Amino acid sequence: MLTINVAVLLAVIVVWRLRRRTEARSRLDEKLTVVIVLALGVLIAPTPAGQGILNVLGQLASGVTQAGR
């Protein structure tokens, strides 16, 4: 039986959609891409990988705010 992780499938779709030329995208197409990316974020957030990404982004944001002082 073949199983597909939904998060992996959404990640592939996002990469495929973002590889297209910017000029060829309509507003509806851009909105659909945003919705897909948000859904991917919701699926990844509770996983250990999502927590790791959150920690890295938090440290990056902290470093940027400290550098701005």
Structure commentary:
The protein is an all-alpha fold. It has one domain (6-67). The chain is 74% helix and 0% strand. The protein has helices at residues 6-18, 27-44, 48-67. Helix 1 (6-18) packs antiparallel against helix 2 (27-44). It is flat.
In short:
By secondary structure, this protein is an all-alpha fold. It contains three helices and no strands.
List keywords for this structure.
single chain; 69 residues; mainly alpha; 3 helices; 74% helix
**General form:** flat
Structural category is mainly alpha
Low-confidence stretches: none
Share of β-strand residues: under 5%
Average pLDDT score: 82
**What does the largest sheet look like?**
none
Radius of gyration from CA coordinates:
16 Å
What level of helicity do the residues show?
A: over 70%
Tally of individual domains: 1
Task: Count helical runs.
Answer: 3
N-to-C SSE string, H for helix and E for strand: HHH
Distance between the termini: 56 Å
The total beta strand count reads: 0
Described by its quaternary structure, the protein is single chain
